[in-house]
Amino acid sequence: MNNNLEHLKKEYMETPMPEELDFMIRKSLKEGRNTMKKKTRGKNIGVIAASAAAAIVVFTAGINVSPVFASTMSKIPVIGNVVKVLTFKEYVYNDGNHNADIKVPSIEGLENKDLQNSLNEKYLAENKKLYEEFEADMEEMKKNGDGHLGVDSGYEVKTDTDKILSVGRYVVNMVGSSSTTMKYDTIDKENEILITMPSLFKDESYVDVISENIKEQMLQQKKEDENKTYWVEGIENEGITERFEKISAEQNFYITLEGKLVISFDKYEVAPGYMGIVEFEIPTNVISDILVSGEYIK
Amino acid sequence: MDKKNIEEQITEYVLKYKENHYRLAYSYVKNADDALDIVQESVYKAICSKDSIIDPGYLKTWFYRILVNTSIDFIRRNRKTEAMDEEIIINIDSGTADNYENFDLKKALDNLPDNYRTIVVLRYFEDLKFEEIAEILNENLNTVKTRLYKSLKILRIEMEDYEEV
């Protein structure tokens, strides 16, 4: 080979390798496998979620149908802003190369102790698992040449009105670059129930209605800004065969202060990694026909 | 095809050749964070689209194709805001005569259109066969050879193995 080119090749071959490379690839492999598993497992989850949701649907239907029921409900004292989120526990670890900061949120002030406990137990279990994963990853990393590893988890209150409380829990994983995942819970503070996607709508048609609207928004955004892209029919993406078809029945969502429904997707869920977490606000007129009531979403 | 089997093959392959893949991604974006992102995203895409592999014999070219497309996709989206690279600045600083000459060639290579530069990198740095490159880029063999020849002309490189082209 030509001398100059040989020189360039040498330089190319000497590209410094980040110490996290091996670890990062193993992470991506795991993420990919999890996504595939989720897709095949989806159906079973749907059944469980639907039955859990059914109980709540019956309850909300009760409010709308029976005037007696409605007046009984109104006699329950409104606790309003007494319901709040606190940091229950914090796990902190830092040895220079590896650090973890995990804040466990805790919902306080609900009269409905079953709901409160089940949420708080869920938060504690999630974060305990996160910390255990961090410890396991750290061990694995040390075995494979070591590198930097960080995990930061906490919560943010998206919406807090007299009526609803939307709390988002985030997890930021930092290995070289960072990735964030978000999970939301929205509570009806007056009625002390957990608002789920199925509970908001009259029937299951919301899955298709919202999915179609999101697809339209994806294409529209791409049209307006060439730098945005989504894995969706109508946008060319080589190497991707999994396109966004539908939201799941229990898709991540929250309700804004203005009473708008926002659907949230994690990194890689519907778009390449550089798009990060993506959110779509669903215009209320698109779903107004199928909403159970205009109570939460306006 | 046995799905478990192909997943294991992908896993083994991406771990074994991680440094090659990282180098290639780095040659596009010239910084570690973005290169890591591209490799990660390619690995993720590979696992999620594993069903699209028909013959595991094509695993290498199939993965390179994902990697090249992800890289080109990435720089297209980020080119608008591209600032002068730290590495180039360092190179300018330490310019002995010899280095400077090489820097010119390096710059010329970097300035080639992506579909030309990719061929030079894959052929001479990654030592891939013409047939493999043609498959990765989804072009016919003659197009690949012509582009390489043109690239070398632009770079003013006289090749001893010119005949091979």
Question: How would you sum up this structure, described in words?
Answer:
The complex is a heterodimer of chains A (298) and B (165). Chain A has 298 residues and is an alpha+beta fold. Chain A is built from seven helices and nine strands. Chain A has helices at 3-13, 21-65, 67-75, 113-143, 197-200, 206-224, 284-287, and strands at 84-94, 98-108, 149-160, 164-175, 177-188, 193-195, 253-255, 261-265, 278-282. In chain A, helix 2 (21-65) packs across helix 3. Chain B has a domain at 1-82: Rna Polymerase Sigma Factor, Chain: A (Orthogonal Bundle). In chain B, 73% of the residues lie in helices and 0% in strands. The longest helix of chain B is centred in the middle third of the chain and has 20 residues, at 59-78. The chains are: A alpha+beta (298), B mainly alpha (165).
> Which pair has the most extensive contact?
A-B, 43 and 52 residues
User: What share of the residues of chain B lie within helices?
Assistant: over 70%
CATH architecture group name of the domain at 1-82 in chain B? Orthogonal Bundle
Total of DSSP H or I helical runs spanning 4+ residues of chain A: 7
- Rg on CA atoms of chain B, Å: 17 Å
Global shape of chain A: flat
Please describe the biggest sheet of chain A, giving its number of strands, its sense, and whether it closes into a barrel.
Answer: 6 strands, mixed
In short:
By secondary structure, chain A is of the alpha+beta class.
Show the helix and strand layout.
The complex is a heterodimer of chains A (298) and B (165).
Chain A: H1 3-13, H2 21-65, H3 67-75, E1 84-94, E2 98-108, H4 113-143, E3 149-160, E4 164-175, E5 177-188, E6 193-195, H5 197-200, H6 206-224, E7 253-255, E8 261-265, E9 278-282, H7 284-287
Parallel strand pairs in A: 2-3
Antiparallel strand pairs in A: 1-2, 3-4, 4-5, 5-6, 7-8, 8-9
Helix pairs in contact in A: 2-3
Chain B: H1 3-16, H2 18-29, H3 32-48, H4 59-78, H5 86-93, H6 97-111, H7 114-125, H8 130-137, H9 141-154
